Amino acid sequence: MTRLGHGFGVLSFALMVVIGDAPQVRGAVVDVQVGQATVEVAGAGDEAFRLTVCFDGKPHPAQSVYLAENPSDAASVAVNENTWTGVKSPAGELLIDPVAGRWTLRDSAGKTLIPPGSLGQLTSNDQTGAPFVLLNMGCASEKRFRAYGCGDGEDALRQDHATADVGNGHATVPYFWTDAGYAVLGVDRDDNTPPSWTASSDLERVTWVFAGKSADLYLMPAANLVDAARAYAHLSGPPAVPPRWTFGYLQSRWGWKDPAYVDDAMQQFISRKLPVDAFIFDFEWYATSPDYKLKPEGSPTFTDFSFNPALFPDPAAQISALKTNGIHFVVIRKPRLGNSELLKIARAKGWILQPKNAGEQIDSRVLDFRNPAVRQWYAQQTIPLLRQGIDGWWDDEGELTYTTYYWWNQAQIDALAQVRPGARHWSIDRAFAPGLQRLGVAAWSGDIHASWDELAKTPTHLLNWSLAGMPYVACDIGGFAGETTPRLLTRWMEAGVFFPVMRAHSEFTVQPHFPWLYGEEAESAIRKALELRYQLIPLYYSLAHQARQSGLGLMRPLAIDWPHDWHCENRSDEWMMGEDLLAAPILDDTDQRSVYLPAGTWYALDSGKALKGGKSIDVTAKLDETPVYVRAGAVLTLGPVIQHTDNLPGGPLEVQIYPGKDGQFTLVEDDGLTTDYLKGQVRRTTFSWNDATRTLSWKIDGPYEGKDIFTDAAIEVMDPQRINQVSASIRADGSQVIPR
């Protein structure tokens, strides 16, 4: 991230305060002239407003992939208040004063969220002459300015500036929420030049920078991070629910050697009872060597869209054998071509991505996926691979433009629709931008090093991405570069149990992160961690369905649930999974740590011991132990230990009740593979706990009746007087009193 202010010259056109033409009202859209700027205010659905400032012609909202669709303004009406004019909706009102050249945002109760202030100005870069719009906002908070949700940040959750861009494991978005009570998303005319922002040193204003001569701000009144996540998801699109197998353990490797090596790895996982749901393959699946040393013209022998016969002499049969044992097949992709004949075709058709600015360096073999013809051609090349059985894509090195990953995934979706209509798309990408969450995409934090310092920074990184609208975040467990150690890999695996995507990976030159290669103690501890991960899958999968409705990621900072507790506002070495599960794994080369438990009663997951919150506790955890705590009132839905998710249900659902408060949780089940959940093909079992009567009741809604649903439950109240588990059928509505 860099601060605003570099490279701007003296050429500037300030807004002059003049009385322009009368406001033009078109339904719930209001246009006013303020100095040299034409300003448009409009509603953007039920929870957002749009402020467009244009110094070049008539304003109109940008067509952006950041947005789910052009947000409707049907919920808004035009309003006038003295010299102020604007729009009002159930969320609040956005007003502008064309006489004084000021604007303001209020919530539904009339509280001022952004105080009246100037719009900004048009300026230009003193080196290139390129125009920029500087758009000002007031901070409007009697507190310190605290902004969350702009993406990158390994050291803190709160930020005071952000330059939106993407890189190797780097993703910053033009969005934030502040405790002043609003969230904001900036949209430029070109999605590949996203706007940036910075707060002034006195924290009295925020200034946005937009390339070009116009700017769009989408403003969302939101009293807290929960409201902000919902409004942001409505604006940019709800996250797709990933395939259920992606919630299992994903074993990635650069350097799968030959068919026998792959088969041995599979047998090791099975015989050692180490759960796993996917093998992920690097370059070797399609090429005999990486393409990094290829010349711009490529090589006539390089293969871009076929299997490497040395590793996959019979791809369909080999992939089928993996799937018979519950292991899905995911492969790496690059956004460029290596075959010289394909490069000739692509260049002749103008399909290669061109540098946007003079002097910019871009690999001359990269496809421009923004071109519909490129996406159509790429999909056709991909279809035969899908027919061999590929389940998902590992999209790497696509940070060429801000939206490369978006359009690249669209091409993959188009291919999948032709081979498996109705199947869910899944890829894991090295960065993201707003809108990508709609497509069924996960993101991982890039080529990190195998070190304790990197492990300690990883939760902060992933939590910041989650707040920025990417619910499915991951890292290279164990570190990509450099050798890991048994202790480091074990502690990283234990933390990974509580990441939305649990994926281990390493570079070609180091020992692969197969658990059995790190000694019996580490293997045993990792097995215990993997077993817990698989028990949590029914819970995590239900949280994924919740995320689609709420916009909240599965992995949540404590600041979401305890916004007024200063201990939580910037804490990221422990976090929530959903509302009830607090994970505080060991993140350094010791067996001790301090854990802060917010106010209330908590229970240790492993022992059921009750603990009083509102304070920090010192914890010691052996190598096979992970500090995890559960809120009073929680109803946890856990599955049995299974080898892979195709084994679900695998036994009765374990319903753990943590007493002290009433509680509720909805278990969501579907087929785990298709988009039929969008058509209502789900089963929701809502468990409700009445603490006074010690009664657990459940109600079932939804038509889904697949063979993978849970039909029986083992119920247990986790208190000192707990009794043996009580069995119950959950095929239909019911209840069960749990005696003391």
Molecular structure report:
The chain is of the alpha+beta class and 740 residues long. It is built from eleven helices and 45 strands. Helix 5 crosses helix 6 and helix 8 (486-496) runs parallel beside helix 9. The protein is globular.
What amount of the residues lies in strands? 25-35%
Going by CATH, the architecture of the largest domain would be: Alpha-Beta Barrel
Kindly report the average pLDDT value. 92
Low-confidence stretches: 1-20
The CATH topology of the largest domain is: TIM Barrel
Content-based structural category: alpha+beta
Using the coordinates above, name the CATH class of the largest domain: Alpha Beta
Count helical runs.
Answer: 11
Q: What name goes with the CATH superfamily of the largest domain?
A: Glycosidases
| Ends apart, CA distance between termini | 57 Å
Outline of the structure:
With about 750 residues, this protein is α+β, with helices and mostly antiparallel strands. It has two domains: about 230 residues, glycosyl hydrolase (family 31) (Immunoglobulin-like); about 300 residues, Glycosidases (TIM Barrel).
